[in-house]
Amino acid sequence: MTSVLRSILPVSSAKSEDHDDDYSVEYSFAMEYSGPPVSQDIPQVAPVDVRRIPTAAVAARGVMLSNLSLPVVQPIVKKSDHQNKKVLEELKSSGSEAAHHQVTEAHVGKIGLSGRVYSRKSGNCSYRNGKLAIEEGGDGESNVFGGAQSSSSSGTMGFSDGHDDSNHLSESSDVEDLDDNLKAGVSYGDCSNATTSNSNEDVEDCADEVSGQGHRASVVTFRDLPSNDSMSEQTDHDGHEIIPERRLVLDDVKKGLCNRCCKKNRFAGKEVCIVCGAKYCSKCVIKAMGSMPEGRKCIACIGYRIDESKRGSLGKCSRMLKRLLGDEAIKQIMSAEISCEVNQLPPHLIFVNDKPLSIEELVMLQSCPNPPKKLRPGKYWYDKVSGFWGKDGEQPCQIISAQLAVGYQIRQDASNGNTNVMINNREITKAEFWMLQAAGIHCEGNPHFWVTADGSYQHEGMNYVMGKLWEKKRVRIVCAALSLPFPSDITNTGGEDIDNNSNKVNSKNQEQDAKNKLLLVGCDQSGTSTIYKQARILYSVPFSEDEKQNIKTVIQRNLYRYIAIILEGREQFEEDHMIEMRRRNADEPGPSGSSDQVDKKNAYSFSPRLESFSSFLLQLVMSGELEAIFPAATREYSPMVEELWKDKAFQAIYKRRNELHLLPRVANYFLDRAVEISRIDYEPSEMDILYAEGITSSNGVASVDFSFPKSSQDGYMESSDQNDPSISYQLIRVHVSSLGEHCKWLEMFEDVDLVTYSVSLTDYDEYYEDINGIRTNKMLAAKKLFESIVTHPTLAEKHFLLILNKFDLLEDKIERVPLTQCDWFHDFNPVISLHPHSATSSNNPPLAQRAFHYIAVQFKRLFHSLTERKLFVSRVTGLEADSVDKALRYSKEILKWSEERNTVSLNEWSTESMEPSTSA
Ligand SMILES: Nc1nc2c(ncn2[C@@H]2O[C@H](COP(=O)(O)OP(=O)(O)OP(=O)(O)O)[C@@H](O)[C@H]2O)c(=O)[nH]1
Ligand SMILES: [Mg+2]
């Protein structure tokens, strides 16, 4: 080695003259030093393309309004190449004056600065823990999710803008690394995997996605993507910057798949971008959304306006994201999502009486005592006199504060009414017309009313107030059922109707968008009010004290009615008994006068006291005055009921109650506790309320708002948002007598989502007589009403759920009375298998089950022949909570399927519906 080195090294000055041939050589080897060992790979950063630096948002509205002179960064406009250099120079020299990040060319070359340029304090980029972090100047406040206050004050860096996907910050490919990364302030570039070389596949995928030529379907494409130029230069009429909108065009990705990996994971849930609507699974969401300085947006969507249909979900993320990020981080992200500037309502897109709002007007509108709920970009009308507020061309949806200085004069056709009736210069809609009718206001002769904010109304030109709309409870109930607004601060005047759930309805009423409306109709005695009450009990919409008092009166009054029916039966039994005794005496003649003795002491004789009470009660019932004596009668006659109950003769009649055909089945439930119920201190239980006859509102319309609590029945197939108890439903029960001739009042329910039609399964052998004495089979009457309802133009596109009710009674009846009693069911001919191996319950279901199945198919065929659509059917026993719960949840499923029908075949999931092919 020495000789080799001697030959190549220059002659040393240290060479000794004495040892000419033998001098020693000192040498060392140099090796490339790559620094101290690090436990993990050092992330790479991609250079930023300064031509792609997006613009900053304008400062927060509040700041602009209050004239504070906080430093505000100006938007950076896209520049040509030579201009870019100039920009960099300016940035470098700007120092702390404009409080920019210190961006040098070197930084620009190495750091993936993208997204927006944010201003506040000077900040340095550095590596910390092997990862890129941002150290802010001044207070040294760490800058994790700086968007918690607002994006414009955020110092968060490193968001890939998405305009050029080659500019990405590094990221860890593992979700597990997330926490560390978040703590270190690192953000994630969409589909970038430059950190390590072991993610080649992902890198390729990423490239594919970028080029759009890969094996994966391109996820989303955007039309009309505005150039940076136009974005930064667009302003509203007040000169404020208009935040660009990004529109989604779903390309090849099927609904239900993750928009990044294109895989379906039904169980894990998805998170949705609030701008473009792309959905991401738990594996992709962080890669796709980064550190979310403006909330849940794909990185490419940062800086864009949110999709307004998602405004209601601002601040509400999926459980999947909560699981991934933890409470603290979620809190910050959601806070940023709600408060950051770009996510705020753009005032110039909100028109009131055809005039776009200014920022000041929007602020005024939002801060008035009764602001519009769920305000979205769009056109609204506003009646300044009454405070009525609605979407252009639609009926009012809310009453907001009156006399606000927004918008032009209201147009006569603002709500697209066609009734020739005017309120405050606006032609009102049908629903409002019905509301006026419910208030007893005559609308003949094209009247023009003035209605003020407190509901006072008067004729145009007249100077006296005719009344106040909101004082009439009936009006409020009709409003609730017709989705019309009414003020929530009206105190309950009570008395007129039992259902005074209206205040609650009203508050929900203002959230129409999120509400699913279920209309519940059926023939007399089909069980609609039982189902309605069951829903209130099931979903914890308690009966108020007022309601309970009313229900108590109804139950007690019914009790006296049942007793009267028994007493009436007594006369028949007594007469039968006397005839029988006389016949016996005639057969076995005894001493004269014995038959008289028998007559006086027969088993159904009352004491004179009870006799006179009996006559009194029967007289009351026959004269129709029973109602008038309640509730006062309770105190007076309660002891008589007790005495009656203890009487042997009464008990003898009671034992034969099954022979009393006028006595409703439900009477047994109350009569068994007659003494307790007749007492003054009786408190109806929930069961009593359920069983009580006739306790829905007098006008036949009752509505209740509820949401489904979680239950074990919520199958695995339900995604988290479907289980969301905040999704509210409204069940509107309408009595058939309220529908009018040819069901014309069904028009009132044009905004329902689903119609549930209830039929009593026991109707097949029952008849009613009309005033002309014509007998009609009740099942055929139910069929006729069903035909009228499903073919009603208002309900043409609605989903229908047939509730076949009173299955418990069918089980009993079908053994005694053949289904063929009804002409429509003449070919019901269940073949009962006698084969020993097929005699299992599945092959040989009970007769009632077969009958139910057959009836369901008959209705399905009928429905299909009328609408060419599919009818859903549910078997129900209205008095059983589970059964009603199942049916109502089935309604929920139907609505859900309807939403997803592009991807999910209804047949695949249908558990209770049956095709005609499965008929008996
Ligand atoms: N056994 C049994 N009885 C039921 C069932 N559903 C309802 N009923 C009873 O049937 C009767 C009529 O039910 P309602 O709920 O009042 O019927 P409706 O549709 O409101 O009819 P109207 O009373 O005419 O308004 C009541 O006595 C109920 O208790 C059921 O599934 N099984
Ligand atoms: Mg009823």
From TrEMBL:
Protein name: Extra-large guanine nucleotide-binding protein 1
Source species, domain of life: Eukaryota
Chain intervals for the UniProt region annotation (Disordered): 136-176
UniProt-listed GO biological process terms: defense response to bacterium; defense response to fungus; G protein-coupled receptor signaling pathway; positive regulation of plant-type hypersensitive response
GO MF entries: G-protein beta/gamma-subunit complex binding; GTP binding; GTPase activity; zinc ion binding
Bias (Low complexity) ranges: 146-160
Gene3D superfamilies: GI Alpha 1, domain 2-like, P-loop containing nucleotide triphosphate hydrolases
Keywords of this entry: GTP-binding, Magnesium, Metal-binding, Nucleotide-binding, Transducer, Zinc, Zinc-finger
Binding site for GTP: N805, K806, F807, D808
One Pfam assignment: G-alpha
Residues binding Mg(2+): S529, S698
Gene: LOC105169594
Listed InterPro entries: Gprotein_alpha_su, GproteinA_insert, P-loop_NTPase, XLG_GTP-binding, Znf_FYVE_PHD
Record's GO cellular component terms: cell periphery; nucleus
Span of the signal peptide: none
